Amino acid sequence: MYRDGFYLILLRSALSQRNVESAFIECWTIWEHLFSILNDSLMDHRAIQRVSAVEKITFILVTYAVRSELDKSERKRLEDLAEIRNRLVHFGRFPERSHVLDDAMLFIRLTEFVAAKTLGLEPSRIFNTIEKLEAFLERKKQSS
Predict the structure, then answer these.
(1) Which of 9, 13, 119, 144 sits a CA distance of 20 to 30 A from 112?
(2) In sequence order, what DSSP letters do the residues of the chain get, joined into one string?
């Protein structure tokens, strides 16, 4: 199902990064990879590429029971994660706004959480990942 677990190699690399920016991008790659392998029997590669970042994140969160669903306002909040990715990839740095490092770390911790779920493990609660996700989803959208 997981194509020889290549995402685990990516995860090991992401978690050994010395800076948040590199870890964040590698974690983003893992989410893209998981979305692709879980949907390539339903969509061609071009269709997979056209799915929005928010929809991909939502799909992974629901598929791995991190959340049972996300409403419209919660999905809108996920745009902040996509913005972090876009600014980092296109401009080489995180956006300048409050909470950006917390949001990036949340995404990295969510990646660890999802990876544990893919392995059939109960994710650790040591980083309060779910509680931080809930706080993130409830926080008002930040202006750039």
Answers:
(1) 144
(2) --GGGHHHHHHHHHHT-SSHHHHHHHHHHHHHHHHHHHHTTTS-HHHHHHS-HHHHHHHHHHHTTS-S---HHHHHHTHHHHHHHHHHHHHSS--SSTTHHHHHHHHHHHHHHHHHHHTT-----TT-HHHHHHHHHHSPPPP-
